[in-house]
Specification:
Elements (H helix, E strand, L loop, with lengths): L8 E4 L2 E4 L12 E5 L7 H11 L2 H9 L4 H6 L6 H10 L5 H24 L1 H20 L1
């Protein structure tokens, strides 16, 4: 069982690659690990969690099975740093159970907001106007 190490995980801008021989690994032998296009601050914690909780064989077997990198790490309890910040701000523990509880509350709030929006007379009036406009467009086509 091969472990991930700081030497064999290469941070290449917004991409992380696995390099079996470290920096001496030729480009064709590098394996894609993950991409951090929008949340580059998660790169360090992601790699640390990967090194501590996965072997190379286990991670790439799951990648080959079609799972994405975040799903793989979340299966063992990984929570991204921007989500941890939201959990702390809301007073929830930074654990998978805390995340599930926080997410359930967020979805309940979203459902309540949607129900209020749909019941609003102004929204209903605008919706009726949109439907009339769409019917007029379809009639002209």
């Amino acid at each position: 069982m091969t472990r991930f190490t700081k030497e064999n995980l290469l941070n290449d801008g917004m991409y992380v690659h696995y390099c079996p021989d470290g920096l001496r690994t030729i480009y064709a032998d590098r394996k894609f690990v993950a991409r951090f296009k929008w949340m580059k601050r998660n790169l360090g914690p992601f790699c640390t969690f990967l090194r501590k909780n996965f072997t190379v064989e286990e991670y790439f077997a799951r990648m080959d099975a079609g799972e994405n990198p975040s799903e793989i790490l979340e299966s063992k309890g990984y929570i991204a740093s921007h989500i941890k910040a939201q959990l702390r701000k809301a007073g929830y523990p930074t654990t998978p159970a805390g995340y599930k509880a926080w997410w359930a509350v967020q979805m309940k709030l979203a459902d309540e907001h949607m129900a209020k929006t749909l019941a609003c007379p102004e929204f209903q009036r605008r919706q009726a106007l949109r439907e009339k406009e769409m019917a007029a467009r379809r009639a002209t086509v």
